[in-house]
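Sequence, please.
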């Protein structure tokens, strides 16, 4: 850990004392933070709060902080992609773990809870539309963590080794991947009895990187079925989305806890899409909030 002052070019603080992109100040956020991609989904979550104390917005980053009963929660829109996750998670961590006046990292780090509520496309024919999927592991097919020193646990190393063997046997291209694990306690608190769990592939795009083809051919498209057949013990690839690996990786490196909760709106192998996407997302929001409040594993300041 560096005890040197952080230069103004590295830790950028706005004239009002807020962090550069999020325009938030220390104290604006609870220690349990729900992330959503879409700005409009912030209000879809916070409408369930009993009272709001903070409403701020800059660029694609909208933040609401409030209470359900005595439980303090925040919800923030990240925008789409792991590049935005890099910004959001570094700046949120700085709000808790850096002294802005001294420009120094605090001696005792604060650990946060991050809960992603998002939408996703399913990679398994047997998982029905409008189901909920909790990401036990995430695989980053982007390049974010080529810029950080990463550490994997033995679980993720074993699955990654099995995946490399699978690619060699099946002829599936070996895409650059980094593997991370979700927090088991958060999953236990939020996952319903009939919900699914699995391995989530985080992609650097919505079309070609997820095997979709409109006017351009995707190099991944011919291998979607092969990916759906990968297994490692009880684990299999279950879904595509665009943020989970960034959330898990940044949380792991910064000492936070994270879980990704996915509403499965599309089934990529069946070629189907939900007839009731908003209702499905609303059900997931309600389930997650109920779990957070009843579990009481949150910041109640």
């Amino acid at each position: 850990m560096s005890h040197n002052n952080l230069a103004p070019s590295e830790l950028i603080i706005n004239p009002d004392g807020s962090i550069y992109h999020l325009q938030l100040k220390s104290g604006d956020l609870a220690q349990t933070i729900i992330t959503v991609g879409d700005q409009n989904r912030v209000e879809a979550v916070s409408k369930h709060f009993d009272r709001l104390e903070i409403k701020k917005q800059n660029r694609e980053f909208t933040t609401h902080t409030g209470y359900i009963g005595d439980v303090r929660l925040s919800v923030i829109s990240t925008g789409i992609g792991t590049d935005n996750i890099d910004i959001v998670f570094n700046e949120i961590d700085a709000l808790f773990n850096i002294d802005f006046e001294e420009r120094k990292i605090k001696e005792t780090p604060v650990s946060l809870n991050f809960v992603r509520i998002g939408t996703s496309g399913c990679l398994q024919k047997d998982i029905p539309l409008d189901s909920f999927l909790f990401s036990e592991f995430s695989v980053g097919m982007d390049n974010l963590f080529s810029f950080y020193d990463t550490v994997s646990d033995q679980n993720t190393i074993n699955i990654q080794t099995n995946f490399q063997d699978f690619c060699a046997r099946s002829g599936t291209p070996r895409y650059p991947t980094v593997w991370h694990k979700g927090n088991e306690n958060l999953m236990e608190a939020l996952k319903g009895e009939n919900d699914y769990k699995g391995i989530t592939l985080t992609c650097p795009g919505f079309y070609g990187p997820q095997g979709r083809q409109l006017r351009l051919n995707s190099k991944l498209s011919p291998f979607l079925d092969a990916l759906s057949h990968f297994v490692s013990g009880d684990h299999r690839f279950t879904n595509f989305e665009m943020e989970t690996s960034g959330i898990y990786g940044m949380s792991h490196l910064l000492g936070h806890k994270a879980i990704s909760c996915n509403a499965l709106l599309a089934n990529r192998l069946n070629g189907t899409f939900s007839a009731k996407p908003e209702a499905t997302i609303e059900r997931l929001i309600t389930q997650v909030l109920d779990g957070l409040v009843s579990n009481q594993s949150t910041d109640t300041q």
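The chain has a mean pLDDT of 93.
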